[in-house]
Amino acid sequence: MGVEGIGAKVLRKEDRRFITGRGRYVDDMSVPGMKFAAFVRSPHAHAKITGIDTGAADAMPGVIAILNGKQLQGDGIGNLICGWAVSSKDGTPMKMGAWPALASDIVRHVGQAVAVVVAETRAQARDAADAVMVDYEELAVVTKAVDALKDGAPQLHPEAPGNLIFDWELGDKAATDEAFSKAAKVTKLHIHNNRLSPNPMEPRAALGHYDPAEDHYTCWTTSQNPHVARLVMSAFYNVAPEHKLRVIAPDVGGGFGSKIYIYPEEIVCLWASKRAGVPVKWTSDRTEAFLTDAHGRDHETDVELALDADNKILGLRVDTVANLGAYMSLFSSSVPTYLYATLLSGQYDIAAIHANVKAVYTNTVPVDAYRGAGRPEATYVIERTMETAARELGISPAEFRRKNFIRSFPHQTPVIMAYDAGDFEATLEAGTKAADLAGFEGRRAEAKARGKLRGLGMSCYIEACGIAPSKAVGSLGAGVGLWESAEVRVNPVGTIEILTGSHSHGQGHETTFAQLVAERFGLPVDNVQVVHGDTDKVQFGMGTYGSRSGAVGMSAIVKALDKVEAKAKKIAAHVLEADEGDIVIENGEVKVAGTDKKLGWHEVCLGAYTAHNLPDGMEPGLKEGAFYDPTNFTFPAGCYICEVEVDPDTGVTEIIQFVAADDFGRVINPMIVEGQVHGGLAQGIGQAILEGVHYDDAGQLITASYMDYAMPRAWDLPMFKVSTTETLCPGNPLGMKGCGEAGAIGSPPAVINAITDAIGNNELTMPATPEKVWKALNAVQ
Amino acid sequence: MTDVTMTVNGREVKGAVEDRTLLVHFLRENLGLTGTHVGCDTSQCGACVIHVDGKAVKSCTMLAVQASGSAVTTIEGIADGSELHPVQAAFREHHGLQCGYCTPGMIMTAVDMIERHGSALNEATVREELDGNICRCTGYHNIVKAILAAANAAPATIAAE
């Protein structure tokens, strides 16, 4: 490792612009003649639109255009799609209802866009949007998935009778039934996984610009995957032809999944720009974000765990109802299926698993991937169940887990996944040591003397990243391949540009990706520029989600660097009259091993471009591209241990200590990896004790601001104790697994296991607010 | 429209604004100072924190006309040329930022906090006083570290109060 190579704590190259206020986010963008959009949104959760009167609004100052869904359809703009086809267990395809970018006949959730106003100023657009009179005929509303499945429930889409999108299963039902028939003990649990709002601090925004001179469109948008946005907007929504559409996702202020999807607003801004003849910018306010950004989680699950007389797991049976909201968002179908049930084996050797998942429409915001996407739900199911079983058996939760760990790799689970590598004992050991498990009873007694209830909870998670082998996900219904592309452009002076299809919205790619070059050629990271987020600059990319930018995105860079290195060595061998195999590149020099013959890196690069002395037949230049398609998922895993104190008088939980011991494979920049874990933990702890999206019976979102939705504040969290162990992933050249989501995946069950341990009542749902904790405590006292 | 005059980052600026124009929108849209961000509608998130007459203020909670005659400092105005303000440097050194969106508000809040407490700042006080600043990326861990590090380097005389 060099000072800036793999494994080095390199301070972030991108920081300077952010700490000086010179980041460039979409709402910071301005183009000449730009006007502002405001959306007219439904105040009802379910209603027929019987008329739209724009008379008063049209006459308001600054109004340029007011556009509606009928005009959108008339211009041939297509409905929004779900890009992952999941079939029911009877073989029928999923039932997808139509989702127009602007509703013209029926609205199905509060906040759905009905019309758009384009005006001279932001305030004028908002004023006029408020003056658009929409007549609605209200329809019956259902917000909970289990209610939506009942006879007589309000029906959302004619395409989906009974509101059922699919009734899907995974695993061997007969083998699982057989396992349960032999069980000495069965642990049963009902699990509620609360609905969350992702809440990146930068609200979504879009700036659409149609240039009639070039017949060309540009869309600046808050996207985690600008190329996917371009593909979907052209191929499915007919907004613009792909070769005439440039999508730019500049600095993006967090995503957490919510900025994967292509939303109605960016489609409408592009379309409206052509219609109105002006560039159109829309910026979400926070309430709009709560009302329209895809939510996460919202599962109801019954789980049963079968054990033999020796406390070994025989089988697992899971029955889940997943609320997908009013429409099927872009990857919504994959989250409660292939990203969820495939992880239900956890870290454990389980011979038989069967999972059944019903996906359901309700009059709520669409639900899709949010940090972890399916894997937090699976981990919560398993790790709450493991802890519960251990308590029922009266044995140590750590020992119970240890007894059932998978210990040899590769390991084929009964739910598709083949774990390639891991060492669960190592993370458990690291976690229990850091948490000082041995001293816990003493701390509990000390807390009791102060009138506090101390509890300890554990969670041993595994997840799947490096999403994903294209052929495999294609066979499972994905509409896209999930490779990544990279290009390494070496300039004649030896500086390097890395163009990547990954997108950084906080992950620090500009630094870690440059570290690969530092490692390979011994060049300073300051000589490397990472270019991303612009479809005109980067040829193609699948973007950043599912902790894939290391394992997949960086693997593509490694492949391109391999080609650059090979060509540079050929040039140097030719110039130095040496054997190609004897050339080594280190510390910015290209040397003949064992001799004093060498060239500066810049001399080789300049030579590639002057082309005065290249090997016969070699093309000039030094620029290579690569596509990398992963061979398997990667499997980060770890052990999280949470220690809490509950105040029995108030039910307030304080997180006293949180230990995270993770195995992410190879770590490129430990500072950035720790930061990713910290952020994930905050979101997981937020889910466990603070955050919850709530609808009332009329489908009104009653948690639509930071006054009502409890975001984790600094005061809610402790300093985290994080560490890593390392088993290399054999499936990619760097041995990386991914670290972006683990914190949010592993932490909720650790927190709830700790609180239920403290209060002595296992009946507790997330978020474990003081009221719920107090009630649960008093129910058993 | 109302005429406003104020000093922003040491420079006198004038503008004509609607009475309802928020200070943050005046800074961003009239002056092009886009380092100050808007992250919510309810004055909870603190992405818009600036200093008005030496005090940390949420610029989404103040009208531009109210700031007329005041001295305003934004994130763009705290570095000394290319020399970072110590709090800016501490955020970088301790990885106190990821996506960067909440960062300007965090730094402006931290500068104010350190000016008031100096090296007497402790973890509990930092966490309590960050109540009005939300970060979704960092879990606050490294923000708290950065602020404490900057505070420890601050003059001890202030801490005596």
TrEMBL record, chain A:
What's the superkingdom here?
Bacteria
Query: Looking at the Swiss-Prot or TrEMBL record, what is one Pfam family this protein matches?
Result: MoCoBD_1
User: Where's the Aldehyde oxidase/xanthine dehydrogenase a/b hammerhead domain?
Assistant: 20-140
Answer yes or no on keyword Transmembrane.
no
For this UniProt entry, the molecular function terms from Gene Ontology, in alphabetical order, are:
iron ion binding; oxidoreductase activity
- Identify the InterPro entries for this entry: Ald_Oxase/Xan_DH_a/b, Ald_Oxase/Xan_DH_a/b_sf, Ald_Oxase/xanthine_DH-like, AldOxase/xan_DH_MoCoBD1, AldOxase/xan_DH_MoCoBD2, AldOxase/xan_DH_Mopterin-bd_sf
Keywords for this protein: Molybdenum, Oxidoreductase
In terms of PANTHER family, this protein maps to:
ALDEHYDE OXIDASE 1-RELATED, XANTHINE DEHYDROGENASE
Protein name according to UniProt: Xanthine dehydrogenase family protein molybdopterin-binding subunit
Question: Which source organism?
Answer: Jiella flava
Taxonomic classification:
Bacteria, Pseudomonadati, Pseudomonadota, Alphaproteobacteria, Hyphomicrobiales
Automatic annotation (TrEMBL), chain B:
Q: Which CDD domains match?
A: fer2
Q: Which UniProt keywords are present, listed alphabetically?
A: 2Fe-2S, Iron, Iron-sulfur, Metal-binding, Oxidoreductase
**What domain of life?**
Bacteria
Q: Give the matching InterPro entries.
A: 2Fe-2S-bd, 2Fe-2S-bd_dom_sf, 2Fe-2S_ferredoxin-like_sf, 2Fe-2S_ferredoxin-type, Beta-grasp_dom_sf, Diverse_Oxidoreductases
Q: The 2Fe-2S ferredoxin-type domain covers which part of the protein?
A: 2-78
The UniProt GO MF terms for this protein read:
2 iron, 2 sulfur cluster binding; metal ion binding; oxidoreductase activity
Record-given protein name:
(2Fe-2S)-binding protein
- Organism name: Jiella flava
